Structures are given as C-alpha cells and as structure tokens.
Amino acid sequence: MGSCENVKNGKKLEEMVRKIEEEFWVPVELLKELSDDMVLMMQKGLEDEESSSIKMLVSYVDSLPSGHEEGCFYALDLGGTNLRVMQVKLQGNRTIELKAESYMVPPKIKIGKLHELFDYIAEKVSHVFESVKADFDTVPGKKRELGFTFSFPVHQTRINSGTLLDWTKDYDAKDAIGKDMVVELSKALEKRAIDVNVTALLNDTVGTLAGGRFNNKNVVAAVILGTGMNAAYIEQSERILKPYGLPPKSGQMVINTEWGNFNSSLLPLTDYDCALDSDSPNHHKQILEKMLSGRYLGEIVRRILLSLADDAALFGDIVPPKLRQPYVLGTDIVSAMHGDKSTDLSVVGKCLEKVLEITNVSLEKKKVVVKICEVVATRGARLSAFAILSILKMLGKDKTSAGETVVAIDGSLFGKYEEFKLCLQKTLADELLDEEVSKMVVLRQFKDASGIGAAVVAASQSIYD
C-alpha cells in the first residue's frame, strides 16, 4: 500500500472512530429520559403485561429469607452459560455450608431437543447427588428438596410451576415454548430414579434477591449483568393490578421484571445494533439486553472492528477472515483488551493473534482496538445505570437516604469486567442520584447468590415443615 493511500486510510480511520464515539455516547439527559420511560413500562407491566415490553412477571415468592433458615437443601441453577448443581446446608445464622459443581452447557444441547437438555441436567444432578450421598441424612419417606433457578422468562401460576414464554441468550431448544419447566425436569429426574421434589421454580434474579437477603437484611432488589441481563425487586402487592391469584398475606411480591426486553424509541440504537438484532434468531426481542449484556458486547465490538477493517484498512489491505466470523470475539476478550495497562498493549496483541489470527499490529492500531472496547463497554455500563435507577424509582429509593439500600448484583460483566463495573457505579452515583442518596445505595456482589437463594426458597416451601 502506497504512502498516499496510508494517509488517506489513516484519516478515514480517525473520522470513523470519532463518529462511532459520538454514536455510542449516551448523555445523562437521555439516561434520565430512558429511566422515566422504563418506569412507565414497568407500571404498565404491573397492570397488563401484554401492553408493555417489560413483562413484570409475578414470581410467587411473597416472603424473603430471614437468615435463620436451617436444613439441607439442593439447588439447580441453569444460566446462559453454565449449569450449577449445589448442596446447601443452611445453618440458621446467615451462614451456610456449600458444595457445588459447575458445568458449561454444550452449544448443541442448548439448541437441541428439550428432552435432551433436561436429560443432560438430570445426568449432572445424579452425579452430584452420588458425590454427596453420605452428607444426606436419610429419613424414611422423606425426599430431598430442590429449588430450580431458571434464567429464562416463564409464566407462573404458583411457586413450583412455570411455562416457558421464550428462550433468550443463545438457547433455542425445540418444542419448549408453553411447556412447564418443572414437569420437564421432574420427568428427566424420574427417568434416572433420582428421588427429589422440585419445590420451587425461580428466575436467577429472584434467586439472587433471595440469596442476597439471606446474607443482608437491607437487600431490596437484585440485578443480573452477565451473559444476559435482568432484575427483580420487592413490590407492594396492592400495586399489582393484573390477575395472579389471592393477594399474599405478606402484602409483598417479588417481581421478575424481564427488563432485557425493554424497547423504546428513545434507545440510541446504531446501525451495528440493528444489524446484530436482524441477524439474531430472536430479532425484535431483548433489545436492551443486546445493547449491553455479555452475550453481545463482544459481537458489537467485532462488527465495529470489521467495518473499520473493511472501510479504513484497520488491519491492512486484507481483512482478517476470522473477523468475519459471528460471535468469535467474546466479552471476556474485550474485557482483557480494555484493561490492558502495558505500555506496548501486549495483551491486546496476544488477544488479536489468538482469537482473530491477526499479527504485527502497530501500537496505534492497538489503541484503536482498545478505544472501541472502551466505547462499547461505556455505553453498556451507562445504560445499565439508568436501568438500576428505574428499579430504585419503583421502590421509592431514588430520592430518600433513610437507611442503606442494597442491590444484590451477580454476573460476569459486573464481577469480572472491572472497567464496566466502575463506569456503572460512577454513572449511577455521580450523575443519576443525589449525593446524599448515592451514599446510601450500595451495589454488592454476593457469591453464589442465585443458587443459595433457590435453596433458601426451597426451604421455605418444604412439604416436611
């Protein structure tokens, strides 16, 4: 490539990066407008979920743990990436003894037949039950009891039943929509002669809320920021106007918002977002989730890098073939490159070579890659902050500083992507909340919260009490 061509491409690259920065920046005024819009959608969802993009699903968890629960219970946690099987011994003083196994769900299982998914789950449950058999005090006629955390939207009419509304993330198991996930799990467990009662079905955010409350009495909401994104919080039952059964005696109900499906004309969608949505199997759904969750951040970065390579020769005359492969760039790689503090950006160089088979990248081009990671992650973190503000508004905690307000957070984006986490916290505290209120709002990660929450809710639903 001649020197004149290099100069031309250099200027084109600068212009494209500047334009991308502008397109992906979300000013505070827009964040506040988006929050108002989300609150409106949440309120509509409490009245009639069909008229809102945010379903506000009733969880049938109407009381949260005290921390004094006791006994040996089991939890099954099916998330966007992993399956976890746990034995949880509740010791009555906000402490537990935990044994857990984690498995990465194979891609072919995620998109195969429904019975194959649950057969896979039952196989792993069987393995864990065998390994902890000596820990379970067998009582004649008494079965083990299990809480099932299921990270996908379901319609529930009671605590131990729920029909699948839609797959999200990269799951698409066949013939599943409308089927009861507890019934399907129980059938698979019975096939393997596993003696267990599934006493509770709950979303992972509901599990995280219950697990967080078990640890800390000031937890009032939970947010998942991982492969997918969602939130749950404690609502006053009198504000739930859609029919769902008898009002709970507690006067409260945990709501699973399913806010990843939030859609609004105010969302600052770019051409990259629209193309990603168009190419996804669940297009026109989970729009907010596709702008910021771990499943999609890496893919947005890949699409931007590809456009820079195509139109401004970011990586030279030839576009690296791997860069055209959808979802080849994981958010974990984006996090590693974004966080590279070395003077020569050696981590960026290694990631580009290992994942995209791109070598001999100049320091200036590496800086462009880091800038794109930063731009995409910053937008995601700022959008996450407005969504959390919306939950605080629903709880009436956005203006008052009376006592500590704890939001339990789980997921790899918050837990492992340091720049994302810091940007989210700073945006919420410095731009969206008053100074006095921000001092009292705490975003706190609780280890294994969703699984522990499932076990605690299973304890509350025990048929042997």
From TrEMBL:
Keywords: ATP-binding, Glycolysis, Kinase, Nucleotide-binding, Transferase. SUPFAM superfamilies: Actin-like ATPase domain. Residues 17-212 form the Hexokinase N-terminal domain. Its EC number is 2.7.1.-. Pathway: Carbohydrate degradation; glycolysis; D-glyceraldehyde 3-phosphate and glycerone phosphate from D-glucose: step 1/4; Carbohydrate metabolism; hexose metabolism. InterPro entries: ATPase_NBD, Hexokinase, Hexokinase_C, Hexokinase_N. The keyword Transferase applies. Residues 221-459 form the Hexokinase C-terminal domain. PROSITE patterns: HEXOKINASE_2 (PS51748). Pfam families: Hexokinase_1 (PF00349), Hexokinase_2 (PF03727). One of its GO terms (cellular component) is mitochondrion. It comes from the Eukaryota. One of its GO terms (molecular function) is glucokinase activity. One of its GO terms (biological process) is glucose metabolic process. PANTHER family: HEXOKINASE, HEXOKINASE-1. Belongs to the hexokinase family. This is Phosphotransferase.
